[in-house]
Amino acid sequence: MIMTWIRRKKWWVLAAVVVLVGGSVALGLLVGGSSSEGVGKNAEAQTYVVERGNIETSLTAYGSVVAAQEYTFTFDGDDVKEMHVSEGHRVDEGDVLVELDRTQAELNLLQAERMVREAEAEGVPNTIRERELAYQIALETYAKTTLEAPFAGVVTRIVQATSSSEKWSLKLIDTRELFIEADVDQLDAPDVAVGQSAEAIIEPLGDDVWAVELVEVGGIASKSGNSTVVSVTARLPEADPRILVGYTAEMEIITAQAIDVLIAPITCLTESPRGWMVTKVVDGEEYRTPATIGAMSDQYAEITSGLEEGDVLLLNSPVVPDRPADMTEEQREELRKRLPGGNPGTGGFPGMP
Fold first, then answer.
1. CA dist., res. 173 & res. 156, Å (int)
2. Which of 139-148, 152-161, 310-319, 331-340 has the largest mean confidence?
3. Contact, 158 vs 73, CB < 8 A?
4. How many Å apart are CA 95 and CA 101, to the nearest integer?
5. 45 contact partners, CB below 8 Å, separation of at least 6
6. How many angstroms separate the CA atoms of 30 and 37, rounded?
7. N or C: which end of the chain has fewer CB within 10 A?
8. pLDDT tens digits, residue range 90-116?
9. CA distance linking residue 74 with residue 262, whole number of Å
């Protein structure tokens, strides 16, 4: 977004230079550029003094609160002896959720136990092993007649069968740790990574803000309406009882951050074949000079080299393409032919994107 805006700005300013100054003056600037060159005076131009500051870029993603894990029990409704919970019930690990009829299971267990004793009395190793395995299966079946919570959580759904061929189901979610799952557009996905911090707002809870951290970035992209998105997951710092699974949430993910660095407005920057350029003002004279940038926001750019604190820059400086050192006479002639029209929309000047 930022680079596109700068390119459009360059062309608009260049057209103004051609109209106001005239073809011969503009040509002299085009063929005489250097890495740090005087480009004249502009007493009325606005300037900016390079200083230190912070730059932060972020993007907004929308999603919902999800649980750390969930478990669904299925069982025959005809076997239900007692239901100990209802939807919305909070339970601890090991709490009994449902008791099923155990008459047949208990009978099978007693029979398997008796058969093991008989096999041990006979003393045939293979028979003993066979009966022991049968007893183990019967014991596990008997244990399943009591459904216990494998973790602390909330019963979110109980579905009763509508026919004898269907099963009942009970869904338990783990609320000890909560997460936010959200989607980011595929164009923003390269800027998102595990470990980045974000600020989350849980919409039903007003203006409270939770600091969260990204713990997962989806490995695949998927379609969502007319967009292609990538799923990201952030961990909430603590289980606040006010936060319910399914609540909608908004996250502002910090994608880049630079603290106490040299900064300059992006309106000071223009692009040339050799990279970013700025116009410095020294003793009233304007000089174009290269600058290396780092993090960028929608207003400022981090200056990593080429400038010092206190340097004075021209804001909205006119774009003057730098002349390549190996420009041939044919290229110069082609430039002269293009200059009178000077229409970037039909080809532009050499070196311009």
1. 7
2. 139-148
3. no
4. 18
5. 281, 286, 314, 315, 316, 317
6. 12
7. N
8. 999 999 999 999 999 999 999 999 999
9. 62
